[in-house]
Write a structure and sequence with these properties.
The chain has about 725 residues and is of the alpha+beta class. Helices cover about 20% and strands about 25% of the residues. The chain has four domains: about 260 residues, Rossmann fold; about 80 residues, Thrombin, subunit H, CATH 2.40.10; about 90 residues, 2-Layer Sandwich (Double Stranded RNA Binding Domain); about 220 residues, no CATH class. It is built from twelve helices and 35 strands. Strand 21 and strand 22 form a beta hairpin. The protein is globular. About 15% of the residues have low confidence.
């Protein structure tokens, strides 16, 4: 039987189909070059000096830009060529607008874009009716307030930024618009009075408004429209407060952090700044964007390395990113290294750093080859002494900040008084306290003291303010020179020593500690957490009368949650520096949080109840005097760090005076900050696995909290040393 011959056209089509199928199947085994990674683009603008003599200079804007540049380069995968900076005279109105237009024109949907402005802001009358308060917000360029040069309005910025194609855009404006000021030259607001040259703005093109619900970028600002963003000395250098906090958060934040989480972390650091400067209330940092954008990762970078050397079609190959912002190290001589560009990330005398090998990415605590303490700053670099001194440090090693610098030994004071009172009071204070240095109005002062003489009052009034005159600490009537000097010396010493405890922080910590104050709002909590923090308003407590029932309005209760097993140490510091150890305390039942142990994931109330009897065995009641208190919550993961922390805090408490407020202890005045510096060295060594032993400053005295810290069934399973500190602020009223 003969076979039927196939049509030649069918033969040809079969061959074509076979070849196509073979080609498609072979695609999976082929190696393809990786597609280009999303482009990073950054525009960093900082202005300290302005062309117009009517615009006051700032001190921190250029430092802001240096810090953010280092963070972007070392933490978020930006290259040098992807970061454009405009500093001082480069940041003219035309220069800024052109740089923004260039960035928008070059951007693509997958780009990662960061824009930062540090400088003055202001306001001008609204020309197009799109502002509810009748005022447009502005940023002031270098040549702003000179002839025929208007500010850059929010309408102009919005028109340009609305053209951005990427959905991964973070815009930072560290400026403000209120036009208000402070009592200090050293702590400045980043705003100037509104521009009244309305004719210059009449030709400005009104933007097509982009509703917040649909805009594709995130905008963060250092203050609300009616508040003042601040510029002043932080960690040994002038900085914008908002940029400083942002840099700290981004330096250690996990990749994939959302704008809302960044915002929360900034507010927590604001809380710490607020206590360092005795500020009554720092401005409220703002975040703006659609709900979807605010909850999504920002500046996100893929960190997983490819499984093999080939990359499939459509995939983007990314280099793994370091887990922390860092600076590179160059050895100088035996026991001395140079932190290259270290000042940008806080390398000032007294700060401590962990040193890691070249190419380090994880920065685990047990991977450090040494620690180093900064001894000197030279330009943007810092010299540091290594521990151990004979550690072998290779060129190109990496260093991360693990302990910020302590407060200066001197206490700078500005005294505003007539000659009748000034000279005698200065001499009397210096006779009691050698560490005081009286400064001029153009220098930074930790305290501002005013002696006010009024014709209607027989005795002068003495007013004491915190840094920048931002908070009134106390006022009293002049008695005689010696009594006033005694009172001032007590306040200065207590506050300076308490500030040293408040500045104990671990920027490299991997812990997350959520601390909340249980308030009167239906038993709910006001958040004071590490990642997400609520509005930041201070919680008020009334002084409890002896016959009054305890409640969340007159007795403190904390709610605490940690992601790691840890030991808690809680102290209360009043506005004048008196210190009370709240936990552990002598009234505490032995079966309630032994050693202060908190298990990971276990949310606890301390004390457990405000009714008698409770399991804790104690309450935290407040008595006279009224004022502002700071609650400092320390969490440490190992017994040795916990013991040292409690021992040195006890030193401060026991060396002090008899002023008391809280129910479980007395206030204290520390005579020397040396014990706290030893504690910094000990914690730095322990948290990097160095295990350096520091001899107690009180070897002849036993400290009860330290003696109880012995391994037992209540000891955490973890042994890696880590620690963190969270501050809270409360107002105690009568």
């Amino acid at each position: 039987m003969s076979k039927k011959r196939m049509d030649p056209k069918q033969v040809i089509w079969r061959w074509i189909i076979t070849l196509v199928i073979a080609a498609v199947l072979s695609l999976g085994s082929m190696s393809w070059p990786a597609l280009a990674a999303p482009v990073h683009q950054a525009l960093l603008i900082g202005i300290n000096q302005y062309s117009s003599p009517d615009v006051p200079a700032l001190g921190g804007s250029l430092n802001d830009i240096a810090a953010m540049r280092q963070v972007l380069l070392t933490r978020y995968g930006f290259n040098e060529s992807e970061i454009r900076t405009l500093l001082d005279e480069q940041a003219t109105r035309d220069g800024i607008l052109q740089a923004l237009r260039d960035l928008v024109q070059q951007s693509s949907p997958d780009d990662i874009i960061y824009i930062h402005f540090s400088g003055h802001g202001s306001q001008v009358e609204d020309a197009d009716g799109d502002e509810s308060d009748g005022l447009d917000e502005t940023i002031v360029p270098y040549d702003g307030r000179t002839s025929n040069v208007p500010d850059i309005t929010d309408d102009e910025l919005g028109e340009i930024l609305g053209e951005l194609k990427s959905n991964n855009v973070l815009i930072i404006l560290d400026s403000c618009h209120s036009g208000s000021g402070t009592r200090s030259v050293a702590v400045r607001t980043r705003s100037i009075p509104k521009d009244t040259r309305n004719a210059l703005y009449a030709v400005a093109k009104a933007r097509a408004l982009v509703p917040v619900s649909t805009q594709n970028y995130v905008l963060m600002t250092g203050a609300g429209a009616d508040e003042s963003a601040l510029d002043g000395p932080l960690d040994g250098a002038y900085r914008g407060f908002f940029s400083f906090a942002l840099g700290r958060v981004l330096s250690v934040a996990p990749l994939g952090i959302s704008p809302n989480e960044i915002h929360g972390g900034i507010k927590l650091i604001f809380q710490s700044i607020q206590e360092q400067l005795a500020a009554v209330q720092l401005p409220e940092p703002q975040v703006e964007g659609s709900k979807q954008v605010l909850d999504q990762p920002i500046l996100e970078i893929e960190t997983e390395p490819a499984a093999d050397t080939s990359t499939s079609v459509g995939e983007v190959e990314e280099e793994p990113q370091p887990d922390r912002a860092y600076v590179e190290v160059s050895p100088a001589e035996s026991g001395v290294i140079v932190l290259l560009g270290g000042v940008a990330l806080g390398a000032v005398p007294g700060s401590r750093w962990a040193i890691y090998p070249q190419g380090e990415l994880a920065f685990e605590s047990d991977g450090a080859v040494a620690t180093a303490r900064v001894s000197e700053v030279r330009g943007g670099d810092a010299l540091a002494l290594t521990d151990p001194a004979d550690a072998v440090i290779e060129d190109g090693a990496r260093a991360i900040l693990i302990c910020t610098a302590p407060p200066a030994d001197e206490i700078p004071i500005e005294l505003r008084a007539s000659e009748e009172f000034e000279n005698g009071l200065k001499a009397a204070v210096l006779n009691r306290l050698e560490s005081v240095r009286f400064v001029s109005p153009d220098e930074f002062a930790r305290f501002l003291v005013e002696v006010i003489v009024s014709n209607s009052v027989t005795a002068p009034q003495v007013n004491i303010y915190g840094a920048g005159g931002l908070q009134s600490i106390t006022s009293f009537v002049w008695d005689d020179e010696d009594k006033v000097a005694d009172r001032l010396a007590t306040i200065f010493t207590r506050s300076a020593n308490a500030a040293a405890i408040k500045t104990l922080s671990n920027p490299a910590s991997r812990m997350r500690l959520d601390v909340r104050m249980v308030t009167a709002d239906s038993g709910k909590s006001s958040s004071r957490g590490v990642v997400v923090v609520s509005a930041g308003n201070r919680v008020r407590y009334r002084i409890r009368r002896p016959d009054e029932k305890r409640s969340s309005e007159n007795s403190l209760m904390l709610e605490i949650l940690s992601d790691r097993d840890c030991y808690l140490t809680i102290v209360d510091i009043d506005a004048q520096g008196g210190i009370t150890t709240l936990l552990p305390n002598t009234e505490q039942n032995t079966d309630f949080m032994p050693n202060g142990l908190l298990r990971a994931g276990e949310r606890v109330h301390i004390p457990d109840a405000l009714r008698e009897p409770n399991k804790a065995g104690f309450f935290w009641d407040y008595s006279l005097p009224a004022g502002t208190d700071v609650i400092q919550v320390f969490a440490t993961t190992d017994l040795q760090s916990t013991s040292k922390l409690r021992e040195y805090i006890e030193d401060f408490r026991l060396q002090g005076g008899a002023r008391g407020r809280a129910a479980v202890g007395k206030r204290g005045i520390a005579r020397s900050a040396d014990p706290l510096e030893k504690l910094r060295a000990e914690l730095a060594s322990l948290s990097t696995g160095r295990g350096v032993h520091v001899v107690s400053s009180r070897p002849d005295q036993a400290v009860a909290p330290t003696e109880t810290l012995k391994p037992s069934q209540s000891t955490p399973a973890e042994t890696t040393a880590d620690w963190i500190s969270v501050p809270l602020t409360i107002e105690v009223t009568e």
